[in-house]
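Aim 2 progress update. The chain analyzed this quarter is reproduced below.
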Amino acid sequence: MLADKTVVLGVSGSIAAYKAADLASKLAQAGARVNVVMTEAATRLVTPLTFRSLTGRPVITSLWELTSEFSIEHVALADAADVMVIAPATANIIARLANGIADDMLTATVLATRAPVIIAPAMHANMFHNPVTRDNLARLRARGFTIVGPVYGRLASGDTGEGRLAEIEQIIAAIREVLKRSTDLSGRRIVVTAGGTQEPIDPARHIGNRSTGKMGHALAEAARDRGAEVTLISAPTHLPEPAGIEVIRVRTAAEMKQAVAEAVKEADVLIMAAAVADYQPKSPAQAKIKKQSPGLTLELVRTPDILSEVKGSFIKVGFAAESEDIVANARKKLAQKGLDLVVANDITEPESGFGANTNKVTIIDKQGHVESLPLMSKREVAERILDRVVGLVLTK
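Predicted structure tokens:
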């Protein structure tokens, strides 16, 4: 798994920097090409010569280092990476990464890479539990970063607490898992829907819902990062268009059905994360409806049931946004729509409904297995769903 892989190892200024030398050594022994990037603070704790001796490769310490093979353009280092690992990661480096700061070689490389990034924090327990640090880590998780540790133990200050760098074997296991994930959907075509459809009442108004598209975007980006060719069919959202993904913009349920029917012709998987309106006005007005007294009555009709009506041999994953009897209603949806998996969540739970950056879901398969996940970032939820999809693809 590590042989011939390029690992960019970032080392920041924690006293645990000496442990990064052991990590670099073990990665090199496993056959990886290890390119070490050190912050200025890290060089005060461990010399660059140590890492050069262990990896047999130049160590980068500055954006302006003319002796480096990557000095002309730091993006070249980012492009070369199969995975980036920052171990140890201080509270300072975590804060800079969370805020998109790129003022040295390490932060600039992280910002430039499309490789998966693993963060292994190491700091005093009080710093780790500070709400600012916890918020910064949550933001990185939401962007798809993998966080490993820290673990509980004796700290450099002599105190004990949660702040020690994770064990080297644990970090290497995370690297192997990330590398495995980064290719497990290679050659597969995945269609993902996102956002809430809008059914017009007149040229100025529509029937809609509170979906922001965050879950669908997280799924599309995670599938892309695992090697899949991804088509994202999106109802209106305020989210930026994800790189490396074909995006098809639609507005109504009928438009989404048409786009899905075309996209799944060569797809291996359809993941319907969009919140499709159940009803639409029977006869939308061609001109803006003026205020009426005492009120306005609309006649509504059902919208197309995309999951039921779109047919094919692809794997079908649906979502069930429920407010009561979550598992029972999700099981019913799975059976009625012929799904391979259904992902259910309680939209009334705090931090789990529309618009949140986190989600708490239950995954149910057609064999009846129920997997309830704790509250996670939507990117983490996306990865867990795709873990299940990979298993289905391999046995299809």
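The domain at 6-181 is CATH 3.40.50.1950 (Rossmann fold). The chain has a mean pLDDT of 89. These observations will guide the mutagenesis experiments scheduled for the next reporting period.
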